[in-house]
Structure formats: C-alpha cells, structure tokens
Design brief:
This protein has one domain. By secondary structure, it is an all-alpha fold. Helices cover 73% and strands 0% of the residues.
Length: 254
C-alpha cells in the first residue's frame, strides 16, 4: 500500500506539471481546449448546411458531428500525448522514484479529464442552446470513453517506446494517423456504408467506440456493426504490448 501511495503522489505531481506545461499559467490554454473542437463542429455544420445535406442521424448536424468528433479526439489526443512522454520528462526520469510508466499514466489521465470536461461543456451547450436531445444512456457513453482510452493508452505507450530510439517516429505517426478521422465514423454511420467498405472499417476499433458513444447518446441508434468486445480486447492487447515494451525498455536501459 505504501508503494502505491508513493506512486499515486508521483503521478499526481506529474499531472500538475503536465497541466502547467500544456495549458500554461493563463486561461487561454483551457479556452483553446474547448474552442478547437467547437470550431470543427461549427465549420462542419455550416458546410453541411451550405450544401443542403441533412444530418446522417438525428435532427442536428452539429450534435451528430459532436458525438463523433469528441470521442475520436479523446482517443487521438491520448495516443498523441503519450508519444513524447519520455523525452518531455527525461530530467525527471533520472530520479529513481519516477518511472517511465508514471509519465504515461499522468498524461493519459490529464487527457481523459480534459476531454471529459470538453464533452460535458459542448454537449451541454448543444442541449441548452439549440435544444438538442439529452443522452439516453450515460453508462454506454462512459463505456465508450473507457474503451477508447484503453486503445489510446496502448497505442501511445507503444509509440513512446518506439520514439525513444527513433525520434522521427513521432512525425511518421502524426502523418500516418491523420486519415483515420475520415474513415472511422466521425462523419457517417457505419450501417450506411456499402458492405465491402463496412467490413473494412469494422476492423478499426475506434469506429466501434464512436458507434458505442452514439448508441449511448441517441434514442433509437442501433448499430449492426458495433462490437464492444472487439473494442475492449483490441485496447487491452495494445496496453499489454505497450506496457511490456516499456518494461523491456527499462530493463535494457544502460
């Protein structure tokens, strides 16, 4: 218990450090965390309105994009933030009490907390200001957040280990991961895809997380493709690989 208490204090201190580093001492950093997805959602809603397109599901285009973009960004930001966690905290890793995995956990928890707050504010704003429907099943939405967080943490841990000997991997991953948002269901429902495309997209675990999030938000949203077990098994496998790689890195570090 004493060891766990020490590790919890270390992670808490790292979260405070990461918060100051990411958001700075002013309020602008916090405002940008909310403004960025809001600008995405508003831009997409205006684009659909300009070309006279209806929402793929539900009455509100903005709400549909929000229920896809926000869970996607949760996953994406966790995976991205963890990629350079070791280098950003290299000075602290010289202390025996601070382990590389502590930096991963701290960054992941900060991203989860930030994303959850942004979800509450933006979805709450849509409910209050544009009369969007309220979510029908919060526990399914939370389940989606957990599943997407596992996938983001696992992939981020793997990226962090690879980036240690190969710093250019960060740029490679950043470029390679960008098309994911276009194909994982942020802009459409999986059931509307042709059978061949639907089968390909069904191999992307993030698509199942988005479908699960929308199933928790919308009344009557029924996905024939969604596989919650696949989302969680894939995420747990990534976490096991990432943590095993981090452990091996520690054991082989001079």
């Amino acid at each position: 218990m004493a060891v766990l208490a020490i590790q919890a204090r270390v992670i808490g201190a790292l979260i405070l450090r990461e918060t100051r580093s990411r958001f700075g001492r002013s309020q602008l950093g916090y405002l940008w965390a909310i403004a960025e997805p809001l600008l995405y959602i508003v831009s997409l809603a205006l684009l659909f309105d300009a070309i006279s397109r209806h929402s793929p599901f539900g009455p509100s285009v903005a709400l549909f994009f929000a229920t896809g973009l926000l869970p996607y960004q949760l996953y994406s930001r966790i995976a991205g933030a963890l990629t350079n966690a070791f280098d950003a905290n290299e000075a602290l890793l010289a202390y025996p009490i601070v382990k590389p995995v502590d930096t991963l956990v701290a960054r992941a928890l900060l991203e989860i907390a930030t994303s959850a707050l942004v979800m509450i504010l933006l979805l709450g704003g849509l409910i209050f200001f544009v009369d969007a429907p309220e979510p029908v099943s919060l526990h399914l939405m939370v389940l989606a957040i957990i599943g997407l967080s596992l996938n983001g943490f696992g992939l981020g841990a793997i990226n962090a280990v690879i980036s240690k000997p190969f710093p250019s991997w960060r740029q490679v991953y950043d470029v390679a991961s960008r098309p994911l948002m276009l194909v994982c269901g942020v802009f459409f429902t999986l059931d509307t895809l042709p059978p061949g495309a639907r089968e390909i997209v069904s191999y992307i675990p993030i698509a199942h997380g988005i479908e699960l999030f929308r199933s928790g938000y919308y009344s009557g949203y029924r996905s024939t493709v969604m596989d919650v077990g696949y989302l969680f098994v894939f995420g747990l496998v990534l976490c096991l690989i990432g943590l095993a790689a981090e452990r091996l890195m520690r054991l082989t570090r001079p």
